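In response to reviewer comment 3 from the previous cycle, which asked for concrete evidence that the modeling workflow produces usable outputs, we include below a single protein chain processed end to end. The sequence was submitted unchanged, and the resulting structure tokens are shown without manual editing.
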Amino acid sequence: MDYNTIMRIAQEALEVTMWVCAPILLTGLALGLLIGMLQAATQIQEMTLSFIPKMIGMGAALLIAGPWMLAMLVEFTQGLYERIPYLIG
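The workflow returned the following structure tokens.
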């Protein structure tokens, strides 16, 4: 097993991680920004006001993007299992 193969697998793992985390993180970021602007405009500084909508939005993003995220993880894992003979041989 050579160094380039290991680096390629590590790069693919990081890319898959980035794509799988992106829908939830971007939803939290967008909702946090929107609620922060609303709080700044109304001068309401209640912590639960930003926490609860973000959790609901991130849960909705998980429900919507969950099947795609799972399919991406399964595809990556299957690719790893298919490479085992080439990695040890």
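Residues 23 and 76 are 18 Å apart (CA to CA). We consider this sufficient to address the reviewer's concern, and the full set will be provided in the supplementary archive.
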